[in-house]
Amino acid sequence: MRKIVSFVHLTLDGFVASAQGGLDWVSLTEELFDYVGQRIQQTDTALYGRVTYQMMEAYWPTAAAKPNASKHDHEHSAWYKTARKVVLSRTLANKNEANTKIIRDHLKDEITQLKHGAGSEILVFGSASATHALMAEDLIDEYWIFIHPVILGQGIPLFKNIKDRTKLKLVMSKTFSSGVVCLQYEVARHL
Questions:
Q1: What confidence tens digit (pLDDT) does each residue in 155-166 have?
Q2: How would you write the chain as a 3-class SS string?
Q3: What is the pTM (predicted TM-score) of this model?
Q4: Fold of the domain built from segment(s) 4-187
Q5: CA angle 159, 184, 128 (to 5 degrees)
Q6: Which whole number is the average pLDDT over 147-176?
């Protein structure tokens, strides 16, 4: 069965974005891009909320063709073009785009069906609303949390809509030269 893996940047005090949704506190370095790029190559499906999906669609399909495109732009653009995309949205118009599935209703049933389908794991990229919706239905199997050495004091929390206590098992941790720490946790449903 395919896993749902949440990839998220987080402040030390537990926020995925400022109160206005800003991410100007995220420290993106070549070291981090290389690490995440290698990890992403292991999957074929991305899951987004509507806002994040529209932001990705506006940038990644043509990122490699832009003047001064970085190594990361080239690599992620190539991956993005071939990856299957799943979007959680009740308002996004269905444009019948290749490799894109829009889930409007019946989240648990739709995601469970995807998890039993063909392909590798499904990565949730930073979409707070999508992550919260998946948490509410206990559909996330693993978290890759990139903790940044910053405290916002307020913002959009990562953990929300949790119905029951959720035990996690630390699988891996990695510290980057920027001070960012990546923690990989599996949801331990059977402990």
A1: 999 998 787 888
A2: CCCEEEEEEEECCCEEECCCCCCCCCCCCHHHHHHHHHHHCCCCEEEEEHHHHHHHHHHHHHHHHCCCCCHHHHHHHHHHHHCEEEEECCCCCCCCCCCEEEECCCHHHHHHHHHCCCCCCEEEECCHHHHHHHHHCCCCCEEEEEEECCCCCCCEECCCCCCCCCCEEEEEEEECCCCCEEEEEEECCCC
A3: 0.91
A4: Dihydrofolate Reductase, subunit A (3.40.430)
A5: 30
A6: 93
